[in-house]
Amino acid sequence: MPDLVEAVVHVDLILACDFFPLEELAAYVADHQGWRGVPQARRAVALAAAGVRSPPETRMRLAWVLGAGLPTPLVNRAVFDLTGNLLGYPDLLDPEAGTVSEYDSDDHRELGAHTADNVREECFEHHGLTVARLTKLDLRASRRPALVSRLRRARARGLRRDRSHDRWTLQPPPGWHGPLQL
């Protein structure tokens, strides 16, 4: 597989299906150094992330990390308000910058899903998070420079925010029994 991004997409899918834990997959790749494609497999495993729920999330994360050179974000991590209510599981979250990146697939254009996305975005922003929304057009190679620029601007906005207005946390409330990552 000549494309590193697509190799990572496949590794993330393997992790999502719970076929192998990441450590076992990394050990397998390390044990087969002489095989063709192992250098790329090693890079793909190093870039893989647990909790990814779709190939576009992986592509978006890699545009964030490889394309824009930004710190590795959390993937589908629970975010709470300061009273312990779950705000949601953003696709990507840069906790330092308070920046969320959300991928909207084609089904998000349906009125109900689009409305729910708007409410969710407003909720995140109300609690002090900066939101960037992406679609499949944004992930096309021809649009990569514009996407990288948008992601960097979103993170810069997040870093400039007045943190005294943040009303979100990654700390689950006492007694939380839900997943911290989807």
How would you state the average pLDDT, rounded?
Answer: 90
Distance between the termini: 28 Å
Helix/strand/pairing class, anyone?
alpha+beta
Anisotropy-based shape: globular
Strands side by side in the biggest sheet: 1-4-5-6
What is the count of structural domains?
Answer: 2
What's the main sheet like?
4 strands, mixed
Specify the number of helices: 6
- State the helical fraction: 40-55%
Q: Encode the helix/strand succession as letters.
A: HHHHEEEEEHEHE
- Secondary structure: number of strands: 7
Strand content: 5-15%
Poorly predicted runs of 5 or more residues: none
> How much is the radius of gyration in Å?
17 Å
What does this structure look like?
With 182 residues, the protein is of the alpha+beta class. Helix content is 43%, strand content 13%. It has 2 domains: 48 residues, no CATH class; 132 residues. The chain has 6 helices and 7 strands; from the N terminus they run ααααβββββαβαβ. Strands 1-4-5-6 form a 4-stranded mixed β-sheet, with helices on both faces. A 3-stranded antiparallel β-sheet has the order 3-2-7, covered by helices on one side. Helix 1 crosses helix 3. It starts with a helix and ends in a 13-residue tail after the last strand. The model has no long low-confidence stretch (mean pLDDT 90).
